[in-house]
C-alpha cells in the first residue's frame, strides 16, 4: 500500500447508537456501495463515537453486530472492503489523543453537531461529546483516506479534519493525506417524515424509516407523512418541504429524476403520491432486510469478517501512529 501506487482510499463510518435509517442509507451507504470497486475502502462501525451519549450495553453490542450484517446486506462486499469495529483497533484512541493537542477549543465549540447534541443531552455534556470530531479526524487520517462519503451533516467534521491535518503537516511535513468529503447530489439530507424541517434521525422514530422496518410499518409512516395543504406534487424546498423530501426519497429509491417523478404524479393528489413513495421504499429495502435477517443469524461468519477487518485495519493504522509518534518526538519503543 505505497502512496504512489495504491488505489485512492475511502474511510467512512456510522455510529451503532441506533438502528440504521433510510437517511444513512441514502446519505452514505448507497455511495459506499457505488464506490467500492474504484477505491480501497474501509467501512467502520464507530462504537467509540456511540458512547458519547449514554448507551445500554446489551443494545450497543447487538446493534454493532446487526450493523455489520446490514452493511453486507446493502451490497458491501466483505472480500473487497475492510469492515471492522472501531474499538478493535486501539490506534483510533491513540491518534485521537495526539490530534486533540493540535485542535483548538474554539474550533470544537463551533461544531453544529456539538451545539445540537449538547442541547439534547443537557444533563450529560461530556468532554467525549466535545472532542468527538477529533476522534473522527483520527479515524480518517489513520488510513490516509482521500475521500470520505458522508451525508451533508458531516461535512463540517470532515472540513475540521482537513484543517487539523493541514496544521499538523505544516509543522511536521507531509504526514497526512488531506481528505475530501463526498456528498451525494440526491439524498444528502433526508428529512423527517413527521417534521420535514428536521433531519431524519434515529431519535425521532415516527419520522424515521429504519432499514429493518416491516413493509407495514413503512407503508404506515409514508401514509402519515406530513405534506402541506395544497395538492400539487412539486419540488419546492422552501414552501413544500414535506413533498420535496418525498420526491427526493422517491427519486433516490427508483433512480428516476425529480422532473420524471413530478411528471408521473402530475394531476394526482397526495393520496396517490404518498403510498407510491412508500411502495418504492418497501421494494428498495425488502432485499436488504431479508439478507440482513439471514446474515445476523450467522454469528461465526460475522465474527470472521470483523476479526479479519480489525487485523487488516490495524496494520495500516499502526504505521500511521508510529510515523506520528516519531515526528512529534516520542521515543521509539
Ligand atoms: P451518523 O452515525 O450520525 O450517520 C451516519 C451517516 O449517515 C449520514 N446521515 C444522513 N444522510 C442523509 N440524510 C440523513 N437524514 C442522514 N442521517 C445520517 C451521515 O451524514 C453519515 O454519513 N460522525 C459520524 C460517524 C463517523 C464518521 C467517521 C463518518 C465517525 N467517524 C469517519 C465518516 C468518517 C456520524 O455521526 O454519522
Helices and strands, with pairings:
Elements: E1 9-14, H1 22-35, E2 40-45, H2 47-50, H3 57-73, E3 82-85, H4 91-100, H5 105-109, H6 112-120, H7 127-142, E4 147-149, H8 155-172, E5 180-182, H9 215-223, H10 241-254, H11 258-264, H12 270-296, H13 299-328
Helix pairs in contact: 3-12, 4-7, 4-13, 7-8, 9-12, 10-12
Please give a structural write-up.
With 333 residues, the chain is mainly α. It is 54% helix and 7% strand. The chain has a 3-stranded parallel β-sheet. Strands 4-5 form a two-stranded parallel sheet. Tryptophanyl-5'AMP binds at residues 11-15, 23-24, 26-28, 46, 49, 136, 139-140, 148, 150-151, 153-154, 157, 187-190, 199-200.
Q: In whole angstroms, how far apart are the ends?
A: 24 Å
Structural class: mainly alpha
How many individual β-strands? 5
SSE string = EHEHHEHHHHEHEHHHHH
The coarse silhouette is globular
* Number of helical elements: 13
The fraction of residues assigned to DSSP E strands is 5-15%
Helical fraction equals 40-55%
Mean pLDDT: 96
The gyration radius over C-alpha positions equals: 21 Å
Strand arrangement within the widest β-sheet reads: 1-2-3
Which stretches are poorly predicted, pLDDT < 50 over at least 5 residues? none
Give the biggest sheet.
3 strands, parallel
Which cofactor or ligand species appear? tryptophanyl-5'AMP
Amino acid at each position: 500500500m505505497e502512496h504512489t501506487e495504491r488505489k485512492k482510499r475511502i474511510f467512512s463510518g456510522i455510529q451503532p447508537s441506533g438502528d440504521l435509517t433510510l437517511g444513512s442509507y441514502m446519505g452514505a451507504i448507497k455511495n459506499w456501495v457505488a464506490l467500492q470497486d474504484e477505491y480501497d475502502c474501509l467501512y467502520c462501525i464507530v462504537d467509540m463515537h456511540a458512547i458519547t451519549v449514554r448507551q445500554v450495553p446489551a443494545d450497543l453490542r447487538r446493534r454493532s453486530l446487526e450493523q455489520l450484517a446490514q452493511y453486507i446486506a446493502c451490497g458491501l462486499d466483505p472480500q473487497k472492503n475492510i469492515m471492522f469495529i472501531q474499538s478493535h483497533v486501539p490506534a483510533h484512541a491513540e491518534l485521537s489523543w495526539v490530534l486533540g493537542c493540535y485542535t483548538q477549543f474554539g474550533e470544537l465549540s463551533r461544531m453544529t453537531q456539538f451545539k445540537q447534541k449538547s442541547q439534547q443531552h443537557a444533563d450529560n455534556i461530556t468532554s467525549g461529546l466535545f472532542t468527538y470530531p477529533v476522534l473522527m479526524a483520527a479515524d480518517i487520517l489513520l488510513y490516509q483516506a482521500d475521500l470520505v462519503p458522508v451525508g451533508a451533516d458531516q461535512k463540517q467534521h470532515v472540513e475540521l479534519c482537513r484543517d487539523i491535518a493541514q496544521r499538523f503537516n505544516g509543522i511536521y511535513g507531509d504526514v497526512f493525506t488531506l481528505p475530501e468529503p463526498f456528498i451525494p447530489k440526491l439524498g444528502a439530507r433526508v428529512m423527517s417524515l413527521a417534521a420535514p424541517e428536521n433531519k431524519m434521525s434515529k431519535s425521532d422514530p415516527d419520522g424515521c424509516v429504519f432499514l429493518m422496518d416491516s413493509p407495514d410499518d413503512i407503508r404506515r409512516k409514508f401514509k402519515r407523512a406530513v405534506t402541506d395543504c395544497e395538492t400539487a406534487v412539486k419540488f419546492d424546498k422552501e414552501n413544500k418541504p414535506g413533498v420535496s423530501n418525498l420526491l427526493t426519497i422517491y427519486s433516490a429509491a427508483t433512480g428516476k429524476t425529480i422532473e420524471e417523478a413530478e411528471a408521473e404524479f402530475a394531476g394526482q393528489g397526495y393520496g396517490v403520491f404518498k403510498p407510491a413513495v412508500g411502495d418504492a421504499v418497501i421494494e428498495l429495502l425488502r432485499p436488504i432486510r431479508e439478507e440482513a435477517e439471514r446474515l445476523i443469524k450467522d454469528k461465526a461468519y460475522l465474527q470472521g469478517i470483523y476479526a479479519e477487518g480489525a487485523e487488516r485495519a490495524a496494520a495500516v493504522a499502526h504505521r500511521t501512529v508510529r510515523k506520528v509518534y516519531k515526528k512529534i518526538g516520542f521515543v521509539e519503543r
